[in-house]
């Protein structure tokens, strides 16, 4: 095992529980039992009808990025990878329309109960996600908004995650992320620590997730096969559960990242 792999394995071991108890870390405030509001930016228009907000989360004193996608179809809003917003952020969100649907395409569901309480939308998720919300519809049966759902067939038995392609936009949760230290929301500790553990770069595939799934019995080859699906669809923009909007060159960046991590998709 090389030095970089040992670093990645170490951070995965230290943070292993985060994958399984995401909704229980540093959440409550004195005013509410819901997860508190973390720092976030303003809603940014990406393309017609698609918006993105850059937020953050704090775990073990490290600030790291977390993002939410908003789709606006004639005033009906669909939130993907939900992130709780400040009162000012909610005013900005509500100016776009009514929150009708929330989609949990991965493990970023810690704010799902808050949105259920605040807006009473219809929830869509993969089995096992948004477990603290009642009456969740199976997202595999169809999206409430325009777009195409993609699944990772190899990992479905151990890790529930999907992706969505809408026109030129790819929306992911953990599979494909952005971790450029000078660009993402983090603190001084994160700027130093995250790159040291390999969380650095644009359109990177998640080594943390690979390590986590290997401990559950998934092979690196099967993980590569699933991630290669993100090179089989067309897109220019990446809106991830971690990072910021990559515009114009997202697929090219993803292809280079794939080659660095896995080699050719056909090997």
Structure, described:
This protein is α/β, with parallel strands linked by helices. It has a single domain (3-262), classed as Metallo-beta-lactamase, Chain A, CATH 3.60.15.10. Helices cover 27% and strands 24% of the residues. The chain contains eight helices and 13 strands. The strands form three sheets. A seven-stranded mixed sheet has the order 1-2-3-4-5-6-7. Strands 8-9-10-13 form a four-stranded mixed sheet, with no helix packed on it. It has a two-stranded antiparallel sheet with strand order 11-12. Strand 9 and strand 10 (169-171) form a beta hairpin. The longest helix is centred in the C-terminal third of the chain and has 13 residues, at 250-262. The radius of gyration is 17 Å and the shape is globular.
The count of domains is: 1
Instruction: Give the end-to-end Cα distance, rounded to a whole number of Å.
Output: 21 Å
As an assembly, this protein is single chain
- Output the CATH topology: Metallo-beta-lactamase, Chain A
**Helix/strand structural class:** alpha/beta
Strand arrangement within the widest β-sheet reads 1-2-3-4-5-6-7
SS elements, strand count: 13
* Largest pleated sheet: 7 strands, mixed
Segments where pLDDT lies below 50 for 5+ residues? 7-31
Beta content comes to 15-25%
Based on CA atoms alone, the radius of gyration comes out at 17 Å
- In the CATH scheme, the class would be Alpha Beta
Number of helices, where a helix is a run of at least 4 consecutive DSSP H or I residues: 8
Helix content: 25-40%
Mean model confidence by pLDDT: 85
């Amino acid at each position: 095992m090389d030095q970089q792999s040992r670093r990645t394995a170490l951070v995965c071991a230290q943070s292993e529980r985060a994958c399984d108890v995401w909704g229980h870390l540093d959440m409550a405030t004195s005013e509410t039992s819901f997860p508190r509001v973390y720092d976030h930016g303003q809603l940014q228009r990406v393309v017609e009808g698609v918006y993105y907000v850059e937020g953050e989360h704090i775990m073990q004193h490290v600030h790291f990025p977390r993002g939410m996608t908003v789709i606006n179809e004639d005033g009906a809003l669909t939130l993907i990878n939900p992130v709780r917003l400040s009162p000012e952020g909610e005013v900005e969100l509500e100016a776009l329309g009514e929150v009708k649907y929330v989609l949990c395409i991965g493990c970023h569901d810690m704010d799902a109960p808050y949105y259920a309480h605040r807006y009473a939308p219809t929830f869509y998720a993969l089995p096992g996600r948004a477990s603290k919300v009642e009456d969740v519809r199976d997202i595999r049966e169809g999206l409430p908004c325009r777009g195409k759902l993609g699944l990772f067939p190899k990992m479905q038995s151990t890790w529930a995650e999907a992706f969505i392609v809408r026109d030129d936009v790819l929306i992911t949760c953990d599979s494909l992320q952005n971790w450029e230290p000078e660009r993402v929301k983090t603190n001084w500790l994160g700027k130093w620590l995250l790159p040291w553990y390999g969380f650095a770069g644009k359109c990177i595939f998640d080594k943390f997730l690979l390590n986590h799934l290997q401990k559950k019995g998934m092979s690196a080859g099967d993980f590569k096969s699933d991630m290669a699906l993100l090179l089989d669809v067309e897109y220019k923009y990446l809106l991830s559960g971690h990072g910021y909007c990559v515009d114009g060159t997202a697929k090219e960046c993803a292809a280079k990242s794939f080659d660095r991590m896995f080699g050719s998709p056909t090997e």
